[in-house]
């Protein structure tokens, strides 16, 4: 997952909280950070980014 994010221009990091894991996806094009408690949401965002990417 991390390699896929990096190939799309993102950085994926994660950390543990008392409530569970948090996944942060940083878009280096816009500087925007998205934090989610669910890895599936990160995967969905990467899928959208991959489809929007020009071929």
Keywords:
alpha+beta; 3 strands; single chain; 36% helix; 55 residues; three-stranded antiparallel beta sheet
Describe the structure.
By secondary structure, the protein is of the alpha+beta class. The chain is built from 2 helices and 3 strands. It has a 3-stranded antiparallel sheet. β1 (about 10-15) and β2 (about 20-25) form a beta hairpin. The longest helix is centred in the last third of the chain and has 14 residues, at about 40-50. The protein is elongated. The protein starts with a helix and ends with a helix. The mean pLDDT is about 95.
Task: Write the topology of this structure.
Elements: H1 2-7, E1 10-17, E2 20-27, E3 33-36, H2 39-52
Antiparallel strand pairs: 1-2, 2-3
Q: How do you describe this structure in short?
A:
The protein is of the alpha+beta class. Helices cover 36% and strands 36% of the residues.
């Amino acid at each position: 997952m991390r390699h896929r994010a990096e190939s799309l221009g993102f950085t994926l990091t994660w950390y543990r909280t008392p409530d569970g894991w948090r996944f942060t996806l940083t878009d280096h094009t816009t500087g925007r950070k998205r934090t989610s408690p669910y890895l599936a949401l990160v995967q969905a965002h990467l899928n959208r980014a991959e489809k929007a990417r020009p071929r």
